[in-house]
Task: inverse folding
């Protein structure tokens, strides 16, 4: 069941105006430190960050950065990032233009009385159970940030053991023409 | 041809046309110092690694070619961090080579190990840790390419000892493609529509000002600037980093803007309706309180670094590219300019009311530092290069010396690095041995890096140093006098400790002292006649002298404080 995506640029867990930068970098030692250091010294806030190889050659990596666009003008963030020699390309996506997805993994304690409710939450969120034992289940949701927010909120009523989210990755929507890339 | 990594490193520097390295050897860089013996490259052995970095900066700023410094790992590398930061702030092209502990020892807290690429990440344009000898030629070629193109800056190459000891088959990257820099595209071309939009704003302006920054020197655009200014008759201001980009003697020149700028330059910017900003970055020392800066001015912003656009002040027209090309493009589009007669009448009024001023030198009182600078300026050869440290003496040297050509004023602008002057003068003299080089220094600054006069004497580099000795950290003293109720805290240095004449003599220099104007003139003339060894003159100056005009920190430029003799004008 698809959850409508917000068009305001805000979600429950990120109540600031965010923007997504998809940054292609050379896969060299220290590149992530260069980017993190730049954000730190310029006072730009990172909301989430996901890094993975961008191609089979291992020459490039893709870093998806969700930035707090209120901490600094996006133009400044882009401009300063672009000055890093190892940054090859920057695409920026406004939330309304982006198809965003995120992975949530959570292990929840269950007993006879709570198990049905947890399973119901999993079913309603289109999440899946990936591991179980007598006292706990581990569930997974790959979905929109909003869907992950909703599931996280719902799980607050249960005894969490652990909940991890990956931070989002994004691509331009096929139905939208990006304003800048 | 089989070479060691060390031989390849020196050969790569030779390939880049390097004629001078400023450096100091140590354990991790030892292998590289061996092939240096057989190289055509001159090595200047400094007494402290900070000196090597500032010398390389002075060399770069005097010649327009990148400065090269080489030091060892650990403390050798950290000692050159200040010059790297300084070069980063002032966009000076440097290539700094640091030794590193052997690759296998990296990360083990080995002797003289430090993560210099990590430390300098935020203060270099780029840095490299070279992990194989084969990569040395590429790293060197790429470092020079990055340091000198686009917005120039410092590049550091960290070379582990096992890499310089290993052997490699010599090769050389002949094309930029072989530098393997897929993310670096310094080439630019001026946007035609942008140039037309700039011309349109110029055509509409009634009170334009050419706001000239250091980028004009970096892109060697002085000739285009002169032609454009003369054709349009638009007044020119040159920032601290741009002194010399436009002749001080030219009637269109209002001088330096900013915290200690000329009243007419500061006020013309405040009252302007269009700032044609060329390679300048709206530094806080120029704008004063930003909210009140040039409130009615539209902005044309030309810069090679597009990240400067809208960083501090929103631009109405932003044009990325080299300043010379941009000026040519705009010049071609500007057909009509306004009638600036009224604007110039106002400016002339400010110039007459508030010229640069200081109390006249009287008999039997301590020397006026401004009078000393003017005396050196008038009694030294045309084209003399001036370097300075940071503080009052720097501001007076920027105000009272008349700069007529690019590369004659060398100082630490963005970083404000005390102690810059002496080593920068050494580097400038190495790069331009045909020029007289004077360092206008303060007594506080001199004490920070004076040991490089030993280098200067040993290497036969005859610079001249004028210490404006007021026995104080003068700029801090001035702030304490004006803004801290004359509560002087930790600013007194003593005029006699150290004894600057004896110190100069101990370093193999000629040491002179002047307490009166007659002695000062005699000492200056004597210094200008000495061309084999460095000269140091200890000028005893008045500690109560302050730099005016002054825009107090946090005030708008409208609140500029003029010299006491002009208050009420």
Result:
């Amino acid at each position: 069941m698809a959850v409508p995506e917000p068009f305001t640029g805000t979600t429950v867990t990120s109540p600031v105006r965010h923007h997504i930068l998809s940054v292609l970098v050379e896969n060299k030692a220290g590149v992530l430190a260069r980017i993190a250091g730049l954000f730190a010294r310029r006072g730009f806030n990172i909301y989430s960050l996901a890094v993975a190889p961008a191609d089979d050659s291992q020459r490039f990596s893709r870093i998806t950065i969700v930035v707090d666009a209120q901490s600094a003008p996006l133009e400044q963030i882009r401009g300063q990032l672009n000055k890093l020699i190892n940054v090859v390309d920057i695409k920026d996506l406004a939330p309304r233009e982006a198809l965003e997805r995120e992975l949530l993994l959570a292990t929840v304690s269950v007993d006879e009385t709570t198990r049905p409710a947890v399973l119901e939450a999993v079913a309603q969120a289109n999440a899946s159970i990936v591991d179980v034992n007598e006292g706990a289940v581990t569930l997974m949701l790959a979905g929109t940030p909003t869907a992950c927010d909703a599931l996280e909120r719902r799980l607050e009523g249960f005894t969490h053991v652990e909940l991890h989210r990956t931070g989002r990755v994004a691509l331009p929507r096929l139905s939208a023409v990006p304003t800048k890339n | 041809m089989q070479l060691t990594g060390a031989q390849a490193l020196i050969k790569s520097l030779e390939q880049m046309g390097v004629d001078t390295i400023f450096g100091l050897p140590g354990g991790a860089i030892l292998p590289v110092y061996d092939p240096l013996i057989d190289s055509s490259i001159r090595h200047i052995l400094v007494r402290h690694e900070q000196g090597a970095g500032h010398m390389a900066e002075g060399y770069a700023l005097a010649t327009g070619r990148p400065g090269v410094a080489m030091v060892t790992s650990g403390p050798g590398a950290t000692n050159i961090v200040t010059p790297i930061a300084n070069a980063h702030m002032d966009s000076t092209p440097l290539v700094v080579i640091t030794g590193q502990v052997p690759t296998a020892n990296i990360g083990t807290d080995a002797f003289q190990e430090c993560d210099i690429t990590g430390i300098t990440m935020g203060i270099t344009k780029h840095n490299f840790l070279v992990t194989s000898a084969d990569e040395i030629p590429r790293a060197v070629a790429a470092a020079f390419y990055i340091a000198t193109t686009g917005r120039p800056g410092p590049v550091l190459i960290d070379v582990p000892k096992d890499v310089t000891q290993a052997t490699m088959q010599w090769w050389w990257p002949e094309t930029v493609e072989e530098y393997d820099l897929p993310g670096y595209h310094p080439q630019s071309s001026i946007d035609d529509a942008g140039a037309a939009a700039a011309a349109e704003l110029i055509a509409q302006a009634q009170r334009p000002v050419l706001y000239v920054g250091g980028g004009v020197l970096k892109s060697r655009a002085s000739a285009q600037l002169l032609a454009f200014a003369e054709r349009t008759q638009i007044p020119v201001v040159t920032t601290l980093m741009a002194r010399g980009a436009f002749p001080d003697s030219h009637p269109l020149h209002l001088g330096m803007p900013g915290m200690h700028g000329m009243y007419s330059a500061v006020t013309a910017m405040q009252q302007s309706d269009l700032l044609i900003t060329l390679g300048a970055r709206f530094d806080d020392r120029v704008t004063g309180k930003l909210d009140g800066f040039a409130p009615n001015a539209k902005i044309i912003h030309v810069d090679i670094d597009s990240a400067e656009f809208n960083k501090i002040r929103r631009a109405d027209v932003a044009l990325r590219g080299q300043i010379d090309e941009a000026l040519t493009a705009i010049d071609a589009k500007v057909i009509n300019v306004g009638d600036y007669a009224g604007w110039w009448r106002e400016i002339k009024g400010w110039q007459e009311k508030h010229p640069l001023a200081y109390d006249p030198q009287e008999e039997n009182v301590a020397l006026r530092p401004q009078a000393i600078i003017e005396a050196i300026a008038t009694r030294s050869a045309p084209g003399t290069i001036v370097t300075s440290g940071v503080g009052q003496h720097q501001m007076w040297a920027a105000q009272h010396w008349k700069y007529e050509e690019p590369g004659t004023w060398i100082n630490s602008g963005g970083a404000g690095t005390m102690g810059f002057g002496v080593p920068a003068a050494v580097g400038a003299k190495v790069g331009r041995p045909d020029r007289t080089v004077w360092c206008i220094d303060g007594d506080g600054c001199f004490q920070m890096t004076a040991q490089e006069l030993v280098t200067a004497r040993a290497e036969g580099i005859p610079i001249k140093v004028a210490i404006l000795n007021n026995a104080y950290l003068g700029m801090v003293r001035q702030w304490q006098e004006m803004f801290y109720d004359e509560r002087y805290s930790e600013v007194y240095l003593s005029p006699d400790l150290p004894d600057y004449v004896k110190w100069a003599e101990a370093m193999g220099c000629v040491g002179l002292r002047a307490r009166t104007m007659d002695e000062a003139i005699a000492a200056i003339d004597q210094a200008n006649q000495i061309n084999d060894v460095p000269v140091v003159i200890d000028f005893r100056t008045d500690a109560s002298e302050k730099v005016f005009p002054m825009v107090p920190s946090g005030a708008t430029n409208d609140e500029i404080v003029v010299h006491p003799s002009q208050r009420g004008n």
Observations:
- DSSP finds four helices and nine strands in chain A.
- Residues 31-42 of chain A form the longest helix (12 residues).
- Residues 99-170 of chain A form a domain with the Alpha-Beta Plaits fold (CATH 3.30.70.1150).
